[in-house]
Amino acid sequence: MAKTIGIIAIKGGVGKTTISAALASDLANHYNKKVLLVDANFSAPNLGLHMDILEPEKTIHHTLDKKIQIKSAIQNKFGVDVIPGEYVYNKPLNYLKLKDKLNTIKNRYDFIILDSSPSLNDEVLSTMLASDALFVVTTPDYPTLSCTLKAAKLAKQRGKPIAGIIINKIRNPRFELNLKEIEDSVDIPVIARIRDDKNAVKSLFTRIPLPIYKKHSPLSKEINRLNAALTKNIEKKSFFQKLMPFDFRKERINRELLKESFYSKTFK
Ligand SMILES: Nc1ncnc2c1ncn2[C@@H]1O[C@H](COP(=O)(O)OP(=O)(O)OP(=O)(O)O)[C@@H](O)[C@H]1O
Ligand SMILES: [Mg+2]
Description:
By secondary structure, this protein is α/β, with parallel strands linked by helices. The chain has 12 helices and 8 strands. It is globular.
């Protein structure tokens, strides 16, 4: 039975879709997992642009609207089963039906990754309700941190506390919030730290997810380390890391703890 992971942030442009596509393609291609990747950013879907699906015939919108089976909206791209969204869909939909729809195919996969919407409404709620675990993406600045706090509060209220923070687009650490400041304010462990990666824009331009476009880019490598925890594998270390007897990097320790909790029965 699949573990469903929701990638959320109540802020646009922080990297939710880039990270969702990277997690999914890395799990499928480098850990040999069966993965379903779903565009749950209903009002501004753009997962298709990251996964090279430009004019989908059936989308998540159709499956929520009509009684058509969710299976019929799946397309396989880069080894990942993808359910894209419809760029313009004018009818109102009940997004909260997402969980029931996914339940009909959950037993076919090892992981389901939901790329969520930045809107603080039923769209993000649908991801929260459908997920077994939530990861929040943040950039290391105060405006985004305040949105991350909001996301954490909402998730807690809904009984789905966030399992980890992914800090993305780290540019100039001297002028940005550090891991400790972020953890102390939000009280959620940081499970990945991703530098600003010039390959992200190239991967989006070519519509090839980053772990396939460039396996050894900073973003791809950190996503691969996070996926090692999610699949109970050992993280790959660089040559220099192998020379160090101890590695006290907090995100690495947090990933070890995540590895334990992710498969425990108490994990929600
Ligand atoms: N680590 C990174 N380094 C550099 N650029 C990045 C990184 N992560 C994402 N980007 C770029 O940031 C832009 C926004 O990314 P993305 O679309 O994934 O954000 P999002 O949170 O899904 O946005 P939205 O809320 O609009 O759906 C894209 O151009 C992407 O290539
Ligand atoms: Mg997005």
